[in-house]
């Protein structure tokens, strides 16, 4: 039996389910294996209650966002080497004194957690080919440190991709990962005019294990109908690893990439990216330092529109869009983690300091201090975090405070 090609990867899910059911009926004279796989499904649960407060120069009122996020679904057991995962994402605002980007409350600073009720993931996974996993449908993609491709798990509405991906590990020490995607479901929700990107994009990722770490080569060809300036070709390499020296464990990484226009992008630019980071852990204490440079030519900066941006360039999110002159972020971090504190499994404190300049012309943008206290107990995680961005020649002075509680079951 064949299934006609669909115009969208989303149609591929329905096609795959139909083929699976038809195969089940012919192979076992019924749907028993499919029903058994669904009966043995694993529930996926992720609940989050979050308060986010934002004070920003230029606004008379602070933003106050109190939201409840529920991500609920299941992952079936296998039938003919095939599994089904389905998950919905629901975000309810309990206090709407903030600009969600869709609620029209423009007198407040932005907190990009709009009310949304959406299909988060719906994917079919098959591993019938030797050492190969094929995934089709709406799925989560997180590559490396998520600097280029990520699910933006920090926001209440995560970013997912309508895609077909294939991962092969046939060659010893080598992992090949190729993805075609035609829709990006962004954190702004279905009601937003920028809630999704569409267009044919391709991701290629090759990882090779060495005695000193993982060497990675990647190429990302992004073509967006709605956002032509970010239609780009990015080619690069990354090396990351860890070594132990007595009681000290050292983690290191280095990345380089080059970016130029792709598809219908009418702009002309040629920007470079490079980053290096070194972290050391001794007993309960950790310390690190790094530098990240995203080039810019005065018209357009190096861009990573599909990244988990909150992880980079400060938690205040002042650099979600790269300035035309690029950005140079020099940062240092300190951390302290204690296992088994009272009833907590882990209690950890983190402090990060950033100094921001333009990659071109050396303009001092500003500096930022980020602080976090995190504790875990069974399936619960509690977080208190604070970000303080002090401007010099870019953006506005911004302070943000988060208090949240998360509940996660089976990796939901």
Task: Please explain how this structure is put together.
With 412 residues, this protein is mostly beta strands. The protein has helices at 9-28, 32-39, and strands spanning 42-56, 63-75, 82-97, 116-126, 132-139, 160-168, 174-185, 196-210, 213-221, 232-245, 248-261, 271-282, 285-294, 327-341, 344-357, 364-377, 380-391, 398-409. The protein has an 18-stranded antiparallel beta barrel. A hairpin with a 2-residue loop joins strand 14 (327-341) and strand 15. The radius of gyration is 22 Å and the shape is globular. It starts with 8 loop residues before the first helix and ends with a strand. Mean pLDDT is 93; it is low at 1-6 and 24-29.
Task: Write out key terms for the chains shown.
412 residues; mainly beta; 18-stranded antiparallel β-barrel; disordered N terminus
- Helix percentage range: under 10%
Number of strands: 18
The stretches of 5 or more residues where confidence is low (pLDDT under 50) are 1-6, 24-29
Individual helix count:
2
Radius of gyration: 22 Å
């Amino acid at each position: 039996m064949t299934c006609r090609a669909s115009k969208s990867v989303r149609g591929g899910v329905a096609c795959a389910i139909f083929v699976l059911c038809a195969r089940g009926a012919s192979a076992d004279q019924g749907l028993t294996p499919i029903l058994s796989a669904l009966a043995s499904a694993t529930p996926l649960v992720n609940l989050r209650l979050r308060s986010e407060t934002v004070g920003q120069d230029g606004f008379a009122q602070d933003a106050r966002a109190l939201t409840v996020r529920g991500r609920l679904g299941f992952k079936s057991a296998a039938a003919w080497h095939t599994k089904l995962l389905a998950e919905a994402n629901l975000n309810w605002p309990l206090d709407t004194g903030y600009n969600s980007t869709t609620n029209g409350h423009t007198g407040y600073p932005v907190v990009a957690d709009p009310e949304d009720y959406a299909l988060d993931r719906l994917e079919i996974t098959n591993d019938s080919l030797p050492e190969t996993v094929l995934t089709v449908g709406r799925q989560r993609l997180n590559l490396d440190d998520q600097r280029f491709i990520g699910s933006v798990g920090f926001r209440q509405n995560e970013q997912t991709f309508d895609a077909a991906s294939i991962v092969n590990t046939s060659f010893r020490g080598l992992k090949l990962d190729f993805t075609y995607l035609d829709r990006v479901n962004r954190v702004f929700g279905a009601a937003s005019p920028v809630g999704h990107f569409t267009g044919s994009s391709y991701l290629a990722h090759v990882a090779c294990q060495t005695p000193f770490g993982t060497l990675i080569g990647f190429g990302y060809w992004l073509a967006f109908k709605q956002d032509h300036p970010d239609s780009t070709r990015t080619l690069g390499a990354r090396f990351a690893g860890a070594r132990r020296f007595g009681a000290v464990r050292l983690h290191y990484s280095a990345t380089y990439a080059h970016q130029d226009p792709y598809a219908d992008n009418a702009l002309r630019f040629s920007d470079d990216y490079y980053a290096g980071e070194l972290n050391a852990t001794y007993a309960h204490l950790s310390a690190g330092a790094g530098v990240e440079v995203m080039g810019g030519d005065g018209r357009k900066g190096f861009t990573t529109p599909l990244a988990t941006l909150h992880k980079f360039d400060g938690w205040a999110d002042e650099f979600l869009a790269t300035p035309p002159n690029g950005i140079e972020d020099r940062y240092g971090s300190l951390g302290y983690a204690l296992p088994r504190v009272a009833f907590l499994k882990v209690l950890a404190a983190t402090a990060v300091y950033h100094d921001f300049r333009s990659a071109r012309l050396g303009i001092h943008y500003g500096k930022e201090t980020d602080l976090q206290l995190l504790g875990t107990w069974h399936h619960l995680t509690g977080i208190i975090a604070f970000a303080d961005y002090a401007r010099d020649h870019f953006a506005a002075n911004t302070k943000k405070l988060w208090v949240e509680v998360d509940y996660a079951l089976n990796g939901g």
